[in-house]
Amino acid sequence: MTKEDYEEKSKDIPNSEKKIPEYKLPKDIKMKYVPTPTYKLVLYNNPPGTPELHIQRQFKFDRQMNGTGITSPNMDIMVYPVVSYYAINQCTAGDLFMIPLDQSLSYLDRVKRANIVKRISTPILSTDKDIMEKYIFRTLTPIDFSADGSKLITKEKIGNINDGIWQTNLWVYDFNTKQAKNLSEIRDAIKFYWKNSKNLVLDEKRWDIYPLGFDADNPERIIVSAYGYTSTTPKFLGNWSIDCNGEQTQLLSLFDAKANVRINGLKLTQAGLVEPAILLSDEKKQDKLIQKTRKQEKKALNKATKTKKKALKTKLKTMQKEENKTVREYNGHKNINGPTGAE
C-alpha cells in the first residue's frame, strides 16, 4: 500500500456521510422473538417545567450519559444533553448536541432512526469545563422548543454534590443566529422586586427558578416560577416572564403558580408491547421472507455458476479452435518448407 492509498483510506469521514449498518436477516429462521416494545411520540415538556436528567449510579463508571432527546415541532432536528463525569475531582459538565433528522422517513421513524453518529460534532451549548474545583456539577437540560422551532429553552443547574443545587440559569438558543444567551436578567429582576417590596435579600437565602416554557399568549416570552427554601415548605416567589432577548421582565402572579404555557417539543416513549398473536404472525411472515430471500439468493448463485460454466466452455472451445488452426497452419507451413522428392 502506498502512502497516498493509506491517507485516502484513513481520512476522517464527516458524520453526514457515515452509513449506519442495516439490519441483516438472522441465520436461524426458527428463532423465537421476545416481546417487542412499541413506541409513540408524546409531548416532551409535560407538565411544564418537569424535564430532568435522571442520573444513575452507573454514570460514575461509564463517565458519560446521554439524556432524553427533544424533537422540534417541525420534526427536522433533535437535541439531547450529554453529561460527562471527571473522576479526578468528582465533578460533572454538560453539553447539548443536535442531530439532523432524516426528512424522507415518517415522523416516528425519524426519531427512532436518530443516531449519535449523525450528530453535529460541535455542541450548540456547553457548561463551564473547569474541573479543578471538587464536587461541582453543571448540567444542561432542554426544556422546550418555540412554536416555530427557531429557539430552544435550556436550564443549567449548578451546585455541589454535598450541598445540593446552588442556582439554575435560564438559556435560550437561537437556531437562526446560532447564538446562545444566558437570560440572567430574570434572576436579577426577581431579587430586585423582593428587595424593594419586602426588603428580602434573596442572596442571603436559598432560592431558585424553574423554567416552565414559552408563553402561550406571547410566543416570544418565556415563563419561569421562583421558589424560596427558608423552611420545610417551599415558598412561592411568583411566576415571571422574560422576552428572548432579556430586555423586559414581567411579574405575572404572586399567588397562582399555574401558567399558560404552550408545549411544542416531542419525545419518543414506549407505548406498550406487541401482542403475542401479532408476534407469532410476524414470526411466520419473517420465516417466509427469509426462505424466499434464501431461495432467491440460491437461484441467483446457481444462475451465476451456470453463466460462469457456460462462459468457460465457450472460452475452451474458442481456445481449442485457435489451437487446431495453429496446428494446421504449422503443418501446412512444414509441408511447404520441408524436403522435396528430388532431395
Helix and strand content put the structural class at alpha+beta
Largest sheet: 5 strands, antiparallel
Question: Quick check: average pLDDT?
Answer: 88
Order of helices and strands: HEHEEEEHEEEEEHEEEEEEH
Number of helices: 5
Strand content: 25-35%
Describe the structure.
It is a single chain. This protein is an alpha+beta fold. It has a domain at 38-273. 27% of the residues lie in helices and 32% in strands. It has helices at residues 3-10, 59-62, 107-112, 185-198, 276-337; strands spanning 37-43, 64-66, 70-71, 77-86, 91-100, 125-126, 136-145, 151-160, 164-174, 179-182, 207-215, 221-228, 235-243, 249-253, 261-262, 266-273. The strands form four sheets. Strands 2, 3, 4, 5 and 6 form a five-stranded antiparallel β-sheet that branches. It has a five-stranded antiparallel β-sheet with strand order 14-13-12-11-15. Strands 7-8-9-10 form a four-stranded antiparallel β-sheet, covered by helices on one side. The longest helix has 62 residues, at 276-337. The two termini are 65 Å apart. The model has no long low-confidence stretch (mean pLDDT 88).
